[in-house]
Amino acid sequence: MMVIDINSQINSQFLKLYNDKLLLIDYLNSLINNKKVIAFEDIGFCYWNISDSYALLKDGHQLFDNHKIFYDYIKNYNKNYLLWLVCDATQKLTLEHNGYSDFWWQIYKEAVTKNQNSINHFALFCAHRAALYTNKTVVYQKQNFDFAIDCFQDFLKATRNTDEYMFYKTVYQSLTTNFMPFDKNKLKTLCKNWFCYLSQPKSESRFLIGEWQSLVTPFNKRKQAEIAVNSVINAFIYNNELKLAKDLYKTARNFGLNKNSYIEKRLN
């Protein structure tokens, strides 16, 4: 009988990810340095994916160095693009974990302050959503989250008549359970309102991950439902409402929610 070394498997998987990401980083840097990409959004796409690769590798120092270059590249071009820098929670958490919290929050505050009335409301949502993500390994500054909560609340008022409002509201309510009291029944109702969309056909995005157009184009209803339901369930898990989370997850799966290994691991 063959004995499977789980640690060796994990190390092997990480090594493959590490090598794949390094190859991608080298390739994207070569495109920029050799001027094989010249359009502003194409170069931005490269910088964003370099940062994202470092974030996935949990290399906050290299991520910080690249993000500074990315920031310098776009800061004087068009204020809308500042949101590109702060739209991803994994990048934020990696920077915070490595001591660059002030750097991320400074860019976030600049980006949202200069884009309060932007027509790119989905990009603003992504920035606010990233801002309210937290990690137990990082000591957060209350004034930063208070600022983000105020911005998100103003954003909800400004987008009340958009098709995405219920999605924005559900995600906001889920994220803020980490910081303030909440009504379990109201949050549960918000979650259940999404169940009917889980059976809609899946559709592939027209844009690549990290592409500017992917940031300004709202998700379809099926993807909104997946994200909203998972957000609520994770909020209940975080707040030790495990039975409620388990019931919602089971029902959502029956409606068509994709299997979520992360949630299942936390519920078992």
Task: Please characterize this protein's 3D structure.
By secondary structure, this protein is mainly alpha-helical. It has 13 helices and no strands. It has helices at residues 6-33, 40-56, 60-74, 89-97, 101-114, 121-131, 142-158, 165-175, 184-192, 212-216, 221-238, 242-255, 261-267. The longest helix is centred in the first third of the chain and has 28 residues, at 6-33. The protein is globular and about 55 Å long. Residues 1-10 have low confidence and may be disordered.
Primary descriptors:
268 residues, mainly alpha, 65% helix, 0% strand
Quick description:
Helices cover 65% and strands 0% of the residues. With 268 residues, it is mainly α.
The Rg value, from CA coordinates, equals 19 Å
Annotation field: number of helices: 13
| Class inferred from helices and paired strands | mainly alpha
Secondary-structure element order, N to C: HHHHHHHHHHHHH
Record field, number of beta strands: 0
Fraction of residues in H or I helices: 55-70%
What profile does the largest beta sheet have? Answer: none
The average pLDDT value, as a whole number, equals 92
